[in-house]
Write a sequence for this structure.
């Protein structure tokens, strides 16, 4: 079983809103990832958590704030986003840091 | 510099035929991993197949096989007996280095190839 779940599936928010994206896996994976994917482009890495600690931050603006409350859960807190932040946000996990990444279905975010 | 190059923006194949999706990569690291993912219009990235740089044999997973030519730095995906459900975007991706089990790693993705399977 390689299931990664993400909620919500779709999110529409205004530029002054605060919202959160949630990612969950119950496979015992130790590394979790956030990617951003614009239409017709490949995914771009945002953050990596390994053993619940932030290990990679790809110079993402501070309006995106990741959180890993436990080994199964990864959140992405959103605040004061811009319309250009509208994208598909993908979460992934891997058993160990060097193993294959398995992706969730994504959250389609629209910022008005 | 582009690490992963997929030169075919779009491909057509008839149902039941085989199709090859091209991928070339650029790295000076002797240890790396190559991945293929499928992304249907629904958005989920589905892992298909993995090839390690030190693997002696080409990877195979069901109808998917990876034609790994190390000297040419190519890692083409071959889909045999195409099905209508294979219509999707296909991404080739690379992990440079052996990977750090304590840190995770970044995947370098190509721009993707859109495959359409016709009846």
């Amino acid at each position: 079983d390689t299931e990664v779940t993400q909620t919500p599936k779709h999110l529409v928010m205004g530029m002054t809103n605060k919202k959160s994206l949630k990612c969950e896996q119950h496979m015992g994976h130790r590394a979790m990832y956030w990617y951003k994917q614009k239409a017709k482009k490949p995914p771009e890495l945002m953050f990596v958590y390994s053993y619940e600690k932030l290990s990679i931050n790809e110079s993402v603006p501070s309006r995106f704030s990741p959180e890993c409350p436990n080994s199964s859960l990864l959140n992405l807190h959103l605040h004061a986003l811009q319309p250009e932040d509208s994208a598909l946000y993908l979460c992934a996990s891997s058993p160990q840091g060097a193993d294959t990444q398995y992706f969730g279905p994504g959250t389609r975010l629209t910022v008005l | 510099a582009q690490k992963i190059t997929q030169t075919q923006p779009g491909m057509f194949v008839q149902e039941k035929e085989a199709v090859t999706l091209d991928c070339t990569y650029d790295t000076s690291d002797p240890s790396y991993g190559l991945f293929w993912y499928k992304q249907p219009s629904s958005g989920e990235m589905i892992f298909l197949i993995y090839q390690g740089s030190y693997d002696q044999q080409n990877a195979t997973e069901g109808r998917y096989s990876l034609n790994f030519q190390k000297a040419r730095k190519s890692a083409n995906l071959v889909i045999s007996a195409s099905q209508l459900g294979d219509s999707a975007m296909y991404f080739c991706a690379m992990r440079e280095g052996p990977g750090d089990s304590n840190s995770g790693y970044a995947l370098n993705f190509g721009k993707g190839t859109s495959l359409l399977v016709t009846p």
Observations:
- The longest strand of chain A covers residues 18-25.
